Structure of F-box domain-containing protein:
Amino acid sequence: MQRPRFELPEALVMEILSKLPVKSLTRFNCVCKYWCSSFQTPHFISNNYHNNLENNNLNLLLSRCDGNTFQPYLSQLSNEKDQNYIVKQNIHLPFFEDDSPSVYGACHGLLCLFDSSKDKAAIWNPSTREFKILPPSSIQRPPYFSPFEETYLTLDDVSFNDAAFGFDSKTDDYKFIRFVTLTFVNSEEEYAHPDFIYQVELYSLRSNSWKEIPYPDYNPNGKTLGNNYVDGICYWKTETGAYLDFRGLILSFDMRNDKFSVLPIPEFVGSFPEYYVDLLVFNGSLGAIVYPLQRIDTSFDLWVTSEGVWTKQFNIKSIPGVVHPLGFGKNGDLFLRDANDEVLVFDASTQELKELEINTYLDHHRFAISLHTYLESLVHINGIQEVEKYVIRQPTRNASNEY
């Protein structure tokens, strides 16, 4: 006698599938048309992302630069402590040639890669392997009339500086913002004194275009650790005053209304010029790692803000030989770089410091080393699948992180 066929309700099937990794869902696209179309709905994409968020399924990328070939690449690390954060694969970025791109985000699993030396940027979903090159800026850069020299100056250089990538929930749009410096000179003078004009350019994924917005009263300075975007707002360090009257500030930009504002850096920092203050995202909130400028053994204070109130999370005392923090991984592990450019990880729960067996002998560009985290996501960006002239993935040869 044939047993009756038991079928689960489609809603329950979709709920179960939404808990699977993106790699599995990509394979299941070919099971049937209904599944394929369901995986592309905003509801399913949101459920899958929030399941990863609840389970803290962080993926780790170490941004690096090959000191021999000068090729930029990303090392994808395991996110399990028992594997000692080994390198699972190296991802090369031929699109950026011999320039090491800055990485912004992640926002809903998307990263923005930006070459600050050129007008070159791309949005990338490392989970679905979708890659979208941003169009060149169409914003006008008109001639500049110098009242001091009483003549029009020639545009000599365009440089791109600090940036951020985030989401505008008001228009359901992903945006990329960058600061631009225009250098003008008098071409008729042999030793011309440069004049600088500043712009802010904002890219919209929805319109696939750029626009200019008013420049704020403050210039961002100093890089952030990994992500500088939290809940619709981007953050940078800035400053005001001379050395003896020096004050650190936080410049913010709201993606929902395209407006800048300024926040004070709290008093816990102490004498600002004597300390490094690195902004970062910690457990979904804006945080700041504070550590002394002059030191032999480095101690770190982590502060996190919630509704404008800063709270000290923990202090790490006297780590010898550490040069710079890189950011946080899973379960509050703090990644660090030492004087020999080796990557270390500090376990806050056990107070243990471990050296990761990650070869950095090719990483002669120490400031190109940075850590980035993202959650898997099915978000579409109207791009193309990774191709070798843009992205090349190479699995590591063995578990000792050789490549």
In short: The mean pLDDT is 82. The longest helix spans residues 42-54.
